[in-house]
Design a protein that fits this description.
The protein is an alpha/beta fold. Helix content is 28%, strand content 24%.
Length: 174
């Protein structure tokens, strides 16, 4: 994944949904999925998430990247333990009115390697316009992966399984 500048990931359940009945993706993945997320974060300079994801997932400050939250409403970063040299940025409506503009705002801040942790709607919006270089979909249920791909119409370049986790990689040719 080191050759990709903009990555994104989603974990889906057995039905291909990226959120559980609780309204978040917590509990959908497994330990391998968490390791994958950490690896994708480590390759990035910035983690870009939405206000909904930030609040629902009780987002933690990345250890090796900065954090940007795209939200219409101000974001409370006081709950984060922000390491020295790292920063958390709110991308509000004065800087971006949609997902594309939020990604542009991150580029304007000088970030090149960005991992996107939006919900499904934001990731699909960016991916359909070729704004994401590599999208990783994971599921502890192989059928969930297939249901997701069938529903959204994406064709994975690579499919594999690791430690009980099914993975599908969708990548644009560079």
């Amino acid at each position: 994944m080191s050759g990709f500048a903009i990555t994104a990931s989603l974990v889906v359940d057995q039905n291909g949904n990226s959120v559980s009945t609780s309204g978040s993706s917590k509990g959908i993945g497994n330990a391998t999925d968490l390791e994958l997320l950490i690896a994708l974060r480590r390759k990035s300079q910035l983690i870009l998430t939405s206000g909904i994801t930030y609040r629902q997932e009780v987002c933690k400050m990345p250890k090796s990247a900065d954090l940007a939250v795209f939200s219409r409403n101000p974001v409370d970063f006081s709950v984060l333990d922000i390491p020295a040299g790292s920063k958390a940025t709110w991308i509000g409506p004065d800087k971006a009115g949609n997902y594309h503009q939020a990604l542009d705002a991150c580029h304007d801040l000088g970030y090149k390697r960005i991992h996107i942790e939006f919900g499904e709607r934001g990731i699909i919006a960016l991916y359909e316009h070729k704004r994401i270089d590599a999208l990783v979909i994971s599921s502890v249920h192989p059928d969930g992966l297939e249901r997701f791909f069938a529903r959204v119409g994406f064709l994975p370049s690579v499919r594999t399984q690791i430690n009980g986790l099914s993975l599908g990689l969708v990548a644009w040719q560079q």
